Amino acid sequence: MSADQMLAFETDCHIFDGCGFPAPGLHSFLFEPIFSIGGFDFNKPMLLAVLSTVVIIGFFWAAFGRAKVVPGKLQMVGEAGYDFVRRGIVYEALGKKEGEKYVPLMVSLFFFVWIMNLWSIIPVAQFPVTSIIAFPAALALIVYVLWMFLTFKKHGFIGGLKNITGYDKALGPILPLAVVLEFFSNVIIRPFTHAVRLFANMFAGHLLILMFTVASWYLLNGIGIAYAGVSFVMTIVMTAFELFIQAVQAYVFVLLATNYVQGALAEHH
Amino acid sequence: MEPPLLPPLPELVIGLIAFAIVFFFLAKKLLPTINKSLDERREAIEGGMEKAEAAQAEAQQVLEDYRAQLADARHEASRLRQEAQEQGVALIADMRSEGRRQREEIIAAGHAQIEADRKAAAASLRQDVGKLAGDLAGRIVGESLADASRQSRTVDRFLDDLEAKAADQKKAEATR
């Protein structure tokens, strides 16, 4: 790590000591590779992503691996999570009959996103994987491909285009304008916002926690100790808030994905 | 420094692979397992409910049977009571009429006895009175009335006179 990327803890620098505040920034989201194979650098977010996989599969294996009719405690927790996505999100939007097919995808999406978010407040890890745009982008890409595939499969090429562009003769003279806008909104903006919404939330949340954590340390000198206390309390508050936001963002991500699928399957009006 | 919105390819690939693994395990193995178990549970619950419904219906049936039997038994009991009462009434009436009959018999027998006694007494009295009167008259007249037939004739005549007198007197009383 270069000097400008160092955190306050590493510099042992405090206020009134004549050194500037080591503000967190974009550099806080860049990591030195843990190891490299050829040109491929394996870094911390990747490790956490892989660990997410392990955690999710490990949990569900323990909970559902030998599922019983009369559930144990772990199975009950697993079922609660499973049912939350299945009934609360997929059945709500798609109905039981049509939605059943998409339940595994949405359940996987929800828990994958949630666990990747959750690393933000897990000691030692302390980094939300989804604040690296590549991870939300990969998931949004999967949803986007599925959405496009379903749209054209269901309505054919022309019908699919009409579905995407919100083609409706009743619009009259503003039809071309509406079609262009809808096309941009759906085909280009939608996957972008889908990924960025998650990314930006986790990015900002991580920055906030970093900010208050670094400040707590930096202010620990003379009169600054009082401010450091406030900053430390804020760190804890933000951590609790992040716990909430992580779940909400996972929920929103999956809710949107389900809505896109529903839009693809819907008859055009 | 890289712009934060430009997705780096290695992370993109790792993310896709990691998600693919999660999706594969959940979709192929773990969610079907739990779905099977959930279906089994639902069936078990529905089966249990059916059983409970059957048991309830049976209990209802038994209760109705029992009630019907109870009503029958009540009817039977009241019928028997009614019968017994009627029989009792008839029995009492029978006994009463029998008693009355016996009493009348006894009374009639008593009357007959008394009548017979009276007649016997009257006959005996008549003889005694005749004899006494004869003795008395013989003694008074001093004449032996040994001749029984004459004596008897005299007495009879005398008694007939007496009876006729008495009858006259009775008649007179009745007309009065």
UniProtKB/TrEMBL annotation, chain A:
GO terms for cellular component: plasma membrane; proton-transporting ATP synthase complex. It is found in: Cell membrane; Membrane. The chain crosses the membrane at residues 46-64, 102-122, 129-150, 170-189, 198-219, 225-245. Its main location: membrane. PROSITE patterns: ATPASE_A. It holds the Pfam family ATP-synt_A. One of its GO terms (molecular function) is proton-transporting ATP synthase activity, rotational mechanism. Coiled coil: none annotated. Belongs to the ATPase A chain family. NCBIfam families: ATP_synt_6_or_A. Key component of the proton channel; it plays a direct role in the translocation of protons across the membrane. This is ATP synthase subunit a. It comes from Streptomyces eurocidicus. The lineage of its organism: Bacteria, Bacillati, Actinomycetota, Actinomycetes, Kitasatosporales.
From TrEMBL, chain B:
Signal peptide: none annotated. The chain crosses the membrane at residues 12-31. It is a single-pass membrane protein. It is found in: Cell membrane. The keyword Manganese does not apply. GO terms for cellular component: plasma membrane; proton-transporting ATP synthase complex. Residues 35-87 form a coiled coil. Keywords: ATP synthesis, Cell membrane, CF(0), Coiled coil, Hydrogen ion transport, Ion transport, Membrane, Transmembrane, Transmembrane helix, Transport. F-type ATPases have 2 components, F(1) - the catalytic core - and F(0) - the membrane proton channel. F(1) has five subunits: alpha(3), beta(3), gamma(1), delta(1), epsilon(1). F(0) has three main subunits: a(1), b(2) and c(10-14). The alpha and beta chains form an alternating ring which encloses part of the gamma chain. F(1) is attached to F(0) by a central stalk formed by the gamma and epsilon chains, while a peripheral stalk is formed by the delta and b chains. This is ATP synthase subunit b.
